[in-house]
Specification:
heterodimer, A: mainly beta, Porin, elongated, B: Rossmann fold, 10 helices, 8 strands
Chain lengths: 438, 301
Amino acid sequence: MMSFRPMVALLALSMLPAVAPAADDVAALRAELQELKSDYGARVDALEARIQQLESSGQAAAALPPPEPSPPPAPAGGANAFNPAISLILGGSYTSTSRDPSDWNIAGFPPSGGEVGPGERSFNLGESELTLSASIDPYFSGVLTAAITGENEIEVEEAYFRTTALQNGLSVKGGRFLSGFGYLNEVHAHAWDFVDQPLVYQALFGGQFKQNGVQLKWLAPTDLFMEFGAEAGNGDGFPSTRRARNGLNGVTLFAHVGGDIGDDTSWRAGASWLDQHAEDRSAGEDAVGDPLLEGFTGDSRTWVADAVFKWAPSPRRQLKVQGEYLHRDEDGTFVFDPAGIATLANYRNAQSGWYLQSVYQFAARWRAGIRYDSLDSGSDTAELHPDRLSLMLDWNPSEFSRLRAQYDWDNARDDGEQDRILRLQYIYGIGAHGAHKY
Amino acid sequence: MKNPIRILIVLLAMGGAWPAQAALKVLATTSDWGALVTELGGERVNVYVATNALQDVHRVEAKPSLVARARTADLLVATGAELEIGWLPVLVQESGNAHIQPGAPGYFEVVSALRLLEVPTKVDRSMGDIHPLGNPHVQLDPHNIALIAHALSARLAQLEPAQAAYYAQREKDFDTRWSAAIARWEAKAVPLKGVPVVIMHRDQAYLCHWLGLNEIASIEPKPGVPPTAAYLGQLVSKLTGSPPRVIMINAYNDAKAANWLSERVHAPVVTLPFSVGGTPAAKDLFGLFDDSLDKLLAAVK
């Protein structure tokens, strides 16, 4: 007990200084709090006034040079932050032909199986092209272009990765991609200067050749543009076929050079070589749509020369002239089946073709173009030398829309009779702003 | 096949033999950034400018010559904020040059040093060519140039640490001359404050903002959209009551609509250089502002 009492006393003493001043200072604290409140009130008022002042003077806030760079606007957060760039191309056309388009063919050339010919009459929904692209990591980027066709099918146009971290002008691409040979093969349909591909591309590659494989490209470290590329693929795509074997199934080599002539003129020229192989490549379908037993097996080698020239004397005028020559040698065997009895024979043929086209932007939003196509099927018969003349006019209200009219005098058919084709086309782009190749 | 391979080997050897101690190779997207890099880098930089002042930087092509320059560049100086979106991504992609990929030290966007005007709160292409990240035509406010110079000089030093002192010295020298010039320009430009002007495109916004010019109308109804006859007619009736003192266009613009308007609202058309090289007097960045101010002051006299 004795020891307990002093402790209570001590406790009481120790509490005294805390309790007593507290009782005294309540009023003082209140006053202080009141002071703080009014102080903050005044500050908030001052800040509000400043905000109002800045708002009323428009963007005056930006006039003051910031002491240090302001951070860029915060990107969308969460799971959406890494969404790829998305762009969609909408296209369609109205077609009027003087002859039935279902019997369209290119005289003297095997059917190339692609999207060739003038298409069907009247209104046609074109391919809607959906492209997703983004960096994959610091080393690769990826692109997918899917085409949703008017026939309600989805096709993988392109799906590839490419390297971004390689040095010394090297880059590698892999997957499915438009092969880098020539000039027009790598140009996407929505960026074509005419509604369709030149006849020679339709005849020799079914429009465009897509490589399923890899591409290695090297750019020379010179002021003159010099690019060298090599591709290897699985051979899927006319004129080659897939084969049941390992290893390379078709090799493409290409080289391009280019540069400027003064401030207004630029050019690019190239040469390419494709070494391909076909096995039992079908020669098409019979009258009821069954595949013919006829077919080609052998080597198919194509070389291509291409050149483009652009003259842009003002931001609103541009002249573009381009031409390509393609030559193909095929060597192998062919199964003939004229009377239901298959006969094997040696087959050797050289076919070639070229086009020359020119497009002139004569006003900020208007372009006119002319194109001539010519083919040599390797036969001496006069009818087997198809050609075509096309005129084009397009109106481009903005970078994202294009309305086009094209008129063709088409002498492609094997009966030698001309088809006159009128096509009206629209092309619209929505979503991410695409960057176009030269 | 033998010859192409031999040529390839020779070219590869040439690539390997590129002099390492040579000046820093810089690819600048516009003549303004080219001029600034030259001011800051002196003889240590070898500058190639991708466009000239008479081109519309929105609509430039990824020409082979530019891809070739991107291939060998140590530093790419671009505006950013999507100004060059139609062609620069192709150059960077095709270059096979890891040094100038976005995010690498050799990739410099000038807007990274600035606060942009006119950052839209809503974007939709029905509004014309608007830039989601803000107005990218930043070169016509000299205060912006000062900020860019600071950041760009630091980047040069980062790329060539051994030359940091050299770049710092040049930046200090440039900053002294530039600050003096700004003071001179701002004193001279006092009569321009509040002067009503008609502009062509939003690419003149920074100049108007800096000089306190009062933009009362724009010849383009929406950014990048050329005026229709009906719109110009409305513009005339709108401006007749309160006419502008000046109609401002840039060297690369088509003067037709501006001249048409000029006759009807009785205000002179002033063709500004817009970028270094846009007029004969705009030889460098100092000349760009001298000439822009002289032309505007002469018109309002």
